[in-house]
Amino acid sequence: FQSHVVTVSGMDSLFGTAAAAQKCCSGAASRKTAKTGSKKCKSRSARYPKASNNPPYLPPEVSVLWFICLKLVNPTQYRFEHLATQMKWRLQEGRGEAVYQIGVEDNGLLVGLMEEDMKASLKTLRRMAERVGADITVLREREVDYDSDEPHRIAEVLIRKVPDDQQFLDLRVAVLGNVDSGKSTLLGVLTQGELDNGRGRARLNLFRHLHEIQTGRTSSISIEILGFDSRGEVRTAVEIEVSKHAILTRSEFTTENMHLDVFCSLCSAPFLHCKMRPLSLLSAGTTREHLGLAMALKVPIFIVVSKVDLCAKGTVERTVRQLERILKQPGCNKVPMLVSSTDDAVTAAQKFAQSPSITPIFTLSSVSGESLDLLKVFFNILPPLSNSKEQEELMQQLTEFQVDEIYTVPDVGTVVGGTLYSGICREGEQLVVGPTDDGKFRELTVCSIQRNRSGCRVLRAGQAATLALGDFDRSLLRKGMVMVSPEMNPTICWRFEAEIVLLFHAKTLHKGFQVTVHVGNIRQTATVEALQGKVRLLHLSE
């Protein structure tokens, strides 16, 4: 499954990144285009040749999500059907999303189209989207230099269609940062749709315990939902709940073609043991230690510098430079990209999907609302990191569901929350859960399934959900267990070998050293029995 990390850095607690934005080449194009009519859209997979006089070129494309077209003007009926079939396939490969770049030649040259041709091409694109049941949104348009008296423009258009076997498109984003960096406040502002009053009002709905309200610091993990409709308009968690009921009454607002970002807000620094389990599942953050965890887990990250309303512009710039230095250090080798405009946000989302080294940086305020719209644009078009083929391969494997949370719900019984790592899980399916204290696995039945607070009948690999287990004895369950297909014939182990890198530690690692092992969502104490080829292990700084 795909997951992203957003690391929040408050102005009063600095950690790491920088602002060196990668931009598309610009310059004057010396070519004219004589061809008219529609031209076949092709996805780019090879590096483009370097042209003379530095004409504008798009960078090489890796993601299957982004496609280029020169123009789509008055295609024949046969050609139109072919283009619509192409779009349907691309949406399937992009798991419901694709971006078309209009006015770009097959080799990446930014030629642009005159206004009349651009309108005709967008009209054709809308017809294609209607044919396959998708929606389109123009992300951005811009003029390009061209040897002509009339202006030429290029456009990027987002095509979105929820696959037939899904209710919505969703991504999971883990939010991690130091204490008082503004994590909960930012999520409250994003998911509730109202700015903070400067005293933490926006975060109150995220708190789960009385002591969290009293101290203003979270000690538990909370899940929040931010949605975007087909036009890119933000839908808060409240509106999404309303829309689920509105479908039954045929209201104008439904969850069709909706893109959901599911945020996992992790606790503050004093509760690091609470962070580690979701980190292994979803992401990691911005302090040096958190950044090291993200590197070890190979999870892509982007950074939010919050509370910019409390300091001068120069302080923000120094913070970004400090982050840049940390991200560029050997062993990290990230490419920071400061996002300061809508165009930057679109480009950041595109590059973020293409290269794990790209690290977008946002500077914003949850009180004044500064640059919040840029973060929303980024979330709206942030594509999944895995394609349909990779998910299909996971779905072909036997069922494995990792248990993260355990609840008792009145009139429902025992409920577990977690992530399906492989296979497919259906209502009524028979699974085994364990290992129990005696090292065994016990049979159970999945009575019902809910995803993002909405019922569903089928759960697929990479999706998070809650499963109702009826009258299954809750005392037999604990966090870290797995629910698997009986065909897997699961076994347990007490010893294992691991290849490790010691990032940060106050002491050396040696035989007999006691550690806490985090494997997926499992946290277990263990003892180092032997170090092959070494007597002790030092951390990298030594």
Provide the fold topology.
Layout: E1 3-10, E2 66-69, H1 77-93, E3 97-102, H2 115-132, E4 135-144, E5 152-160, E6 169-177, H3 183-192, H4 210-215, E7 222-228, E8 234-235, H5 237-246, E9 259-265, H6 272-281, H7 288-297, E10 301-306, H8 313-327, E11 335-339, H9 342-354, E12 358-363, H10 372-381, H11 388-395, E13 400-409, E14 413-422, E15 424-426, E16 430-434, E17 442-445, E18 448-451, E19 454-456, E20 458-460, E21 464-468, E22 482-484, E23 509-510, E24 514-519, E25 522-527, E26 536-537
Parallel strand pairs: 1-6, 1-10, 2-3, 6-9, 10-12, 11-12
Antiparallel strand pairs: 3-5, 4-5, 7-8, 7-9, 13-14, 13-22, 14-21, 15-20, 16-17, 16-22, 18-19, 18-21, 23-26, 24-25
Helix pairs in contact: 1-2, 9-10
InterPro entries: EF-Tu_GTPase (IPR050055), EFTu-like_2 (IPR004161), P-loop_NTPase (IPR027417), T_Tr_GTP-bd_dom (IPR000795), Transl_B-barrel_sf (IPR009000), Transl_elong_EF1A/Init_IF2_C (IPR009001)
Pfam family, one: GTP_EFTU
GO molecular function: GTP binding; GTPase activity; translation elongation factor activity
